[in-house]
Amino acid sequence: MPATCVIGLQWGDEAKGKIVDLLTEQHDIVVRYQGGSNAGHTVVTGGQTFKLSLIPSGIFRPRVQCVIATGVVVNPASLLDEIDGLAARGIAVGKNLMISDRAHVIFPWHIEEDRLLDRCSDGELIGTTMRGIGPCYRDKVGRSFAVRFGDMFRSDFSDRVNNIVAFKNRMLAGMGDGAGRDLLDAGEIHAQYSGYARRLRDYVADTTAYLLDAVEAKRNILFEGAQGSLLDIDHGTFPFVTSSNSSGVGVASGSGVPARYVTKAIGIVKAYTTRVGGGPFPTEQDNEIGQHIRDVGNEYGTVTRRPRRCGWFDAVAARYTARLGGIDVLAVMLLDVLSQLPELQICVAYELDGRRIEHFPSHVDDLRRVKPIYETMPGWQQDVTGIRRRADLPNKANAYLNRLGGLVGRPVEIVSVGPDRQQTILS
Ligand code: GDP
Ligand code: IMO
Ligand code: MG
Is the CB of 269 within 6 Å of ligand 1? Predict the structure, then answer.
């Protein structure tokens, strides 16, 4: 089984970090291939909690090679903070981390643009993480003002920064409230980034070549998706999405490894649904049920600490993203969070303009108008956090999991009943 991918099937924060950490044991290489420090992946091990943004969640096993591949946008300052933070807690990051020389670099102007442009054309807030992700991907696609990791080691790096800053200062002055003054100092930025580059030099490599060699040598690779499929730039709830292919389709473009090498795709879902930021969310419970889930599940953003919007499991959305990602099996996470509720609802279809539909609408305006059609299932009112076998779960919990898997059309292979590595049921 050479290559497995772990893909979030909702709007992110499905607990991908926990599953990647768990599966790392069976893999040689763990790869992040899209997104950047908008991601916040939590790994709980040995009673300690770690939050990772750029470094793959495989970093806790020293024999495993971690790779930040070409499709990731990297803020070198955040990456160094993460490396230093791990080192301070006894996790060494050395040759076991590799960064693509083709990965694009996030600069201060990207963060500033994120702040100024976090709105749709009608003024509605997208609610980004303010990490400069969208603006960096925009410059990548636009080409003229982009800097890749490898560019920081070339002799024309200083000229490049000067030229970009001259343009960005004019652009930012026109866009924002700083008209007439230069926001960015090219010399300062060049000096700062040259310092980062010096510290990160030994990690930088041609990861595409490395990964192609690895698949051909049949080494076991684990691809760690960031965000969730509904935030995918092409297939998600546009424009309330992130700027990369965060569904299964992104693995090949972001890593350089052809999709046909991926032999197993694991779709991660919460037993309910959450979303951070703006955009439609048909099953949202902006009421005491949503608040209960938020309290019990500690549903506050890993990166921004924003309260996550909470709601019922949406099987229409998950079926769509499971198909999109070629998902083989499901991992259902945070089942324990639902334990105290007397009744649970699952959205099995939508009603749009008086008609029942079972597909996920392509336009947000339609998604905004759908009414979820729910099926009600009994809850189980029993603590499940200590359970380690499917057969030991309350019957009602198993019935819920079976229905959920049936509606999505994929078997449930992993169930999570708590944040710790141990709190996992594997079938
Ligand atoms: P990711 O971005 O997909 O890696 O997910 P996050 O780390 O942003 O959010 C998942 C949160 O749920 C983290 O705080 C995890 O420690 C926590 N978590 C993971 N699995 C479980 C579980 O089964 N039950 C509970 N209660 N918490 C969990
Ligand atoms: P992980 O990997 C949840 C959301 C933001 C915003 C939208 C665009 O931890 O699951 P961006 O900064 O990417 O331009 O923001 O996407 N978002 C996430 N939501 N989990 C994430 O990552 C997210 N990364 C981005 O809240 O709505
Ligand atoms: Mg997260």
Answer: no
For the entire predicted model, the pTM comes to: 0.97
Q: Residues, the chain, total?
A: 427
- Ligand 2 probe mutation, 124, 276, 334, most atoms within 8 A of CB: 276
According to the model, what pLDDT value does residue 355 have? 97
Read off the pLDDT band of 175 (50, 70, 90). confident
59 lines ligand 1 (CB under 6 A): no
pLDDT at 328: 98
Nearest CA to ligand 2 atom 25: 38
Work out which ligand 2 atom sits closest to the CA atom of 278.
27
CB atoms within 10 A of CB 427: 12
337 in ligand 1 pocket by Cβ < 6 Å? yes
Q: Which residues on neighbouring strands pair with residue 219, listed in sequence order?
A: none
> What does the angle CA 41 – CA 109 – CA 252 come to, to the nearest 5 degrees?
45
Q: Which of helix, strand or coil describes residue 11? A: coil
Q: What DSSP designation does 119 have?
A: B
**The amino acid at 413:** E
What's the one-letter identity of residue 222?
Answer: L
pLDDT in tens, 351-393: 999 999 999 999 999 999 999 999 999 999 999 999 999 999 9
Question: Mean per-residue pLDDT for 48-52?
Answer: 96
Q: What is the DSSP letter of 90?
A: T
Do residues 104 and 140 make contact, with C-beta atoms less than 8 angstroms apart? yes
Ligand whose nearest atom lies closest to the CA of 417:
1
Ligand 1 near 270 CB (within 6 A): no
Average pLDDT over residues 417-423: 96
Return d(Cα 180, Cα 354) in angstroms, integer: 55
Question: Residue 166 Cα, ligand 1 centroid: separation in angstroms?
Answer: 43
Instruction: Please count the other Cβ atoms lying within 10 Å of the Cβ belonging to residue 175.
Output: 13
Say whether 13 is catalytic.
yes
Q: What is the DSSP letter of 106?
A: P
Q: Dihedral of CA 99/104/108/112: which sign?
A: negative
Give the residue-averaged pLDDT of 68-91. 98
Q: ∠ CA(352), CA(354), CA(359), 5° rounding?
A: 35
Q: What is the CA radius of gyration of the chain?
A: 22
